[in-house]
Specification:
The complex is a heterodimer of chains A (326) and B (166). By secondary structure, chain A is mostly helical. Chain A is 68% helix and 6% strand. Chain A contains eleven helices and five strands, in the order H-H-H-E-E-E-E-H-H-H-H-H-E-H-H-H. Chain A has a four-stranded mixed beta sheet. In chain A, strand 1 and strand 2 form a beta hairpin. In chain A, helix 2 packs across helix 7 and helix 8 packs antiparallel against helix 9. By secondary structure, chain B is of the alpha+beta class. In chain B, 56% of the residues lie in helices and 15% in strands. Chain B is built from eight helices and seven strands; from the N terminus they run ββαααβααββααββα. In chain B, helix 3 crosses helix 5. Classes of the chains: A mainly alpha (326), B alpha+beta (166). At the A-B interface, helix 3, strand 3, helix 5, helix 6 and helix 8 of A face helix 1, helix 2, helix 3, helix 6 and helix 7 of B. Strand 5 of chain A pairs parallel with strand 7 of chain B.
Chain lengths: 326, 166
Amino acid sequence: MTRWLGFAELATLAALVFAAGISLATAALWPALRRAWRRKHPAAAARALLLAAVAPSALPPLAIALCLLPALLGADHCPRHVEHAHLCLHHLAAARGGVASALVGLGAGGLGLALLHGGARLARAQRALARLAASEPARLAPDVELLPSDAPLSLALGALRPRIVVSEGLVRALAPAALAVVLDHERAHARRRDALRMLLAEALSWPHLPPVRRALLAELALASERACDEAAAERAGDRLLVAETVLAVEQLARAWPRAGAGALAASFGDSAVPPRIESLLAEPAAPAGAARASIAAAALVATALPLVEPLHHATEHLLSVILAVL
Amino acid sequence: MRRMEDGIGRTRAAPDPGGVWRVRLAHAVVPPPRARRRPSLGALERAVLDQLWSGGAGDVKAVHRAVGEPRGISPNTVHSALERLVRKGLAERRKLGRAFEYQAGVSRQDWMREELAALLEATPGSEPRLLAAAFVDWTVRAGDERLAELEALLRERRRERRGEKP
């Protein structure tokens, strides 16, 4: 048991080191990454941004699994270099107590708290959405609920099975062609599960440096909106019409008087509307095919496999250095 | 006012940090009135409330006919749902002969307005917004000048296109 604690210490330490490394690398490369992704098709950019957002949480466990791969496959190279710490299932390191154990405790406790907190927020959000749902809502289309409200509003609600909701106020205010654009945009949100993507990105991007994390999430939200605009433009066959609709709904939203005393006023400046309109007026970026993405993934795996051994070695080396300092 | 770069190399106004802080502080001390008391609502209660809104006031028998029978539930169950609504302040009850008559305690418009306000006016990252994707973000407005510029640009493009294809 205590020997497994030693392994857990090393694995947690390695995970922390990987996470810190990934978030620092993202911070250093961020300006270049953002420029590159802005040039891509928004759907491809949104995929890349989601991966970047979750990388410091999702990659460390993967990297540790890769480190353990040689041991799992039966290779045992520990006797060849006894000077290292051994992140290996054959030679479980003894627990070192003190700082390292505290780190493990902190890591596990933090993870547990984060999960509880996230679960509670999600449950509250679900309840809030359930309160908006009438038992037999009026429908504008088979997949579109009509909300009895004057607010000019359209939403895709929910993470797993998103509902599309538009208000009577919006239906009255928009021309039929513009309304069709809004509905196609929301259908694209629902099809892409954008709320779920944002949820994942928010939940798993904590190890990023706060300014980088904020920028990543904002950029992901913008890329999602642009991807849905592109989908709507493709359906309508008219990019200008989509741009005009975005502007029209923005103007309706700003003209709508906000009710209630405790309500927060909208803030100005961070809106995604100007960049959305600009990119609709520009030439469309070439869509990135799914085939290209899977080829890239396969290439990544193929290059990762020969790197397993050096990764294992480098990790153990790094751990030794850190443990010596601790 | 603080300026910051928006990624395409243009600068624009940053939100006043003092304002955000004041709002956060106000929230910490006095929760906004809506967040304080918003009774939760089960599916049956919601269906009963919908019936009171659409069908008007009625006694248990009438509500059961509309809501209970299609669902195959007893008048007793409908009655207790009505009583729960009364306790939550969402329905009112008055004596009418030997039976009670129930009517909605809140209008559908008011209910909708409060729910939407809670959904939309919440601070970014708060619970309901976790699961909502709006066509334009409700809590953030583009600056006046930028919007006027874009409007002029769009109008010009539309004119150009009409010119091409008379």
